[in-house]
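Tutorial, part two.
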Amino acid sequence: MLHNERVPSLAALVDAADGALAPVTPFPPARIISGVHVSELAAPGRYLAGGELLLTTGIPLTGHDGDAAYVASLAAHDVGALGLGLGEGWDAPPPGFAARCADAGVALFVVPDGVPFLAVSRALMTLERRLERDAGLRAASAHTRLAEAATGDEPRPAIARAIAEAVGGWAAWVPASRHDGAALLHPPALAGMLPAVIADVEASLRRSGAAAASFASHGSVAVAFPVMTGGRMGGALVIGSGRPLSRADRQLALTAVALLRMVTAPAGAASPVEWVARLALDGETAAARSLARAGGVALPRMVRVAVTGVDGEPHPLSAVEDGMRLALLDVDDVSEAGAVSAPVPLDEAPAAASRAIALWRSADGTGAVTERPRRVELWLDALDGSPGLRDAVRAHLSSSQRMEQTARMLGVHRNTVRQRIAAAERVMGVPLTDPDVAAELWLALRVSR
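Running the prediction step on this input gives:
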């Protein structure tokens, strides 16, 4: 299942800390840790959002009954755990302190003498990056399984099975007519629900014309997504689970809908390669990549969108739309006719296509016209001359432009970070404090890794 895969648990953090956190009391291994906070205040609760691992050298502690109020305050503010650094004020937890923590439900750890609190913070950051990477790999695997299901002999049952297994629930295909296949539900053990699901789709989706509809079905939260083909509703994909669908679940559902749209289209409507192009141009990037992997289609990470007439030799990775042929070119490909966009990441192909279409319609029809490079490409070119500046800008934007956190990520002093960021702004000619600049540059840096 794809939910909660990017959130670090207390057990995972203890393991990642590699001895920097030693448990004193029993702790809930699945407890979610939202961050690491260091405070020597007697009442730090007002600065906590809940779920943090609080680190202290024990300055607020007395070793007497007054420590009970400190522990109670932490419990009231839902602290994820408490870490006591040894060696400065205390060589071991104060008498009775561990029992007070256990009674209040606050997990107590010690940070051994000589281990910096920064080691714990870095362990959490490393863990978060690893979880994000692993979640991405699992999501990619789930998208690939969907694409493989779509290319099989019975794609609709296979797609329903793949999405049901990915979200840990059930999935149903409800066709608009008998020409769109038979209604089905996976797993088969729940097939008795199908008549009620069909009725719910009829009541909540077909009659309303909504882009999606939610309803309760047999104790599950169900979401129905319409599958549109040729301007009509060919059917609906319904996904149910005992919990609300996560963002990753919904992205996977959109991929499944896009693939169902492909298999529900009239026979001969498009080849698999054309469907890859069509999905990418429609903004269904995950589905396009998954189908390309399953079908052995080479799909560039960075593309140019070329717009020409429908006559002539078609580009293999292209689709016809409103009397125009839209093709996805590698950034180094050359077009001798039509309009060509500037290089963009694949997920920006729809916007690039819109610009290329406007350019094509305004051209005089002689030769090829090419869109001028976007300003972000010029910024990246300026940073390419110094990998250190590029890494500094990426880390700085990743840390929401917090100097201290950027310095920790890069393993340098914060003054070095200031110097590198200032140098990067000089070569780019724009300030990172401009939110539009920061947003454009961050997206470009993420796809250009």
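The chain has four domains: 10-125, 151-264, 296-372, 376-447. In part three we will examine how such features are distributed along the chain.
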